[in-house]
């Protein structure tokens, strides 16, 4: 039995003081949005409560589907690297980037360099190599194959879309097929929801049809995403049966917002090829914002 915890949209705060040069870009819109809206509802203590609860449930692995930072400044990227190191061994935490981690041109490369141990596959070079593709990556943990994909790209002001390329699609299909032939349970991590209509037009994932083709031809048992700050369940066509596509609320979302409070999903994976057993339970911040409580229903229950 393998326990996989999933969090997303960490948005580590507080927002650091930025220089005029750093703000003279798309960051100015995010800076204003933070102080007008996000600052009121995103709390660092909330994230700590989730992580404590995950540890109490003895999860074997932690999946983080993007948006570790807010404006992708150098200070934020370094702080996120320190936060990741505090979680423990990089072998036990897998990360994919979100749109906030690639907020402006050049930020994606800085983020991936700083967080490299958490975004590289088992067979990748132990050293950062800027001229090589990181994604998709493959990590094998017991009977589980974790495939990390990236949709993180810098976008213009007032846009938060993602992009899933044809090259990445081809490589992901090959990884999924190989993992399936090896008899592994395949989990795909991606930031943007690969579901049409799951978010607004300017926040959408470009390449949704391409990703759907990857899942239907390469095969997968579970897809995890973030971006919407919502607890959601959708389905994509798989090789044999529909594949669950699960989203989760922001890991730093406090109570009192129109978005659901912070939560994490804990998946239990057991069985064998052709007879996999998957269950999932959601744990959410309570109304008082001082504890994490289990929800009573299996998230896959009809």
Automatic annotation (TrEMBL):
The keyword Hydrolase applies. Pfam families: Metallophos (PF00149). Keywords: Hydrolase, Iron, Metal-binding. InterPro entries: Calcineurin-like_PHP, CNP_phosphodiesterase-III, Metallo-depent_PP-like. Coiled coil: none annotated. CDD domains: MPP_superfamily (cd00838). The keyword Translocase does not apply. Residues 3-229 form the Calcineurin-like phosphoesterase domain. Belongs to the cyclic nucleotide phosphodiesterase class-III family. This is Metallophosphoesterase. The lineage of its organism: Bacteria, Pseudomonadati, Pseudomonadota, Alphaproteobacteria, Hyphomicrobiales.
